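To the wet lab folks,

You asked to see what we're planning to order before we commit. Fair enough. Below is the target structure as tokens, and below that is the sequence we designed to fit it. If anything looks off to you, flag it before the synthesis order goes out.
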């Protein structure tokens, strides 16, 4: 039997400084009834959808061109699909935990608080349920999807012996100033901020289940002992820190 075709997917490691030049990452536990990765701790993410790299969506995207996205991923994929990975990462952050990387059209420096942050959050659940598409939401709010603050970190394809496979791009993003991720949602049972080292220690203790890709990302992050080093390496936008 031929191996299953991997689904394109994006995952975001949301990070913030811990006050002593270390940093924490946001992780959530998936509900026990989910079809994939039930009950394990993961980073926000999901499949890249057709709308994520449609002509309409790419016309509402700021901070990266399709060719720049293709070069950053070093991928033999369509440039539009490469940029769609970034868009999917932003969309999944919003759908799962209510974190927005949107800016007002014509004014990239505007603050979400001035554009109706609470009103945008009301659109999260309809977007998650598929009742509205991201391009339509952004167009109605006269906003753009800002991908400039997401830094590409890691690529992983599920091994061929798995029945469901993903071709996943992992990104780092600093927590935007003034925003707080949801503790729980339709796809999240519970969540926490934790250092990469502590997450690995909890896993080794047997009470913090994680999948191999998540462990690989955590081990990669442990190499950056300080917030200063991580921020400099991946050019995380310091103006957006909490």
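Sequence we intend to order:
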């Amino acid at each position: 039997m031929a191996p299953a075709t991997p689904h394109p997917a994006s995952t975001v490691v949301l990070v913030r400084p811990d006050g002593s030049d270390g940093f924490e990452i946001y992780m959530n536990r998936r509900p026990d009834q989910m079809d994939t990765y039930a009950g394990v701790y993961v980073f926000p993410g999901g499949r890249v959808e057709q709308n994520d790299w449609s002509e309409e969506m790419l016309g509402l995207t700021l901070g990266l061109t399709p060719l720049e996205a293709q070069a950053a991923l070093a991928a033999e994929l369509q440039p539009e699909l490469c940029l769609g990975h970034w868009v999917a990462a932003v969309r999944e952050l919003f759908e799962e935990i209510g974190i927005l990387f949107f800016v007002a059209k014509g004014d990239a420096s505007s603050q979400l608080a001035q554009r109706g942050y609470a009103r945008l959050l009301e659109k999260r659940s309809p977007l998650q349920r598929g009742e509205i598409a991201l391009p339509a939401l952004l167009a109605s709010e006269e906003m753009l999807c800002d991908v400039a603050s997401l830094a590409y970190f890691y690529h992983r394809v599920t091994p061929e012996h798995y029945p469901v496979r993903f071709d996943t791009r992992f990104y780092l993003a600093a927590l935007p100033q003034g925003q707080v991720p949801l503790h729980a949602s339709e796809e999240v049972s519970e969540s926490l901020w934790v250092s990469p080292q502590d997450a690995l220690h909890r896993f080794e203790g047997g009470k913090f289940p994680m999948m191999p890709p998540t462990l690989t990302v955590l081990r990669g992050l442990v190499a950056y002992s300080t917030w200063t080093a991580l921020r400099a390496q991946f050019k995380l936008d310091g103006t957006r820190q909490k």
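Structural context that might help your review: The longest helix spans residues 79-97. Residues 7-240 form a domain with the Nucleoside Triphosphate Pyrophosphohydrolase fold (CATH 3.90.79.10).

Thanks,
Computational group
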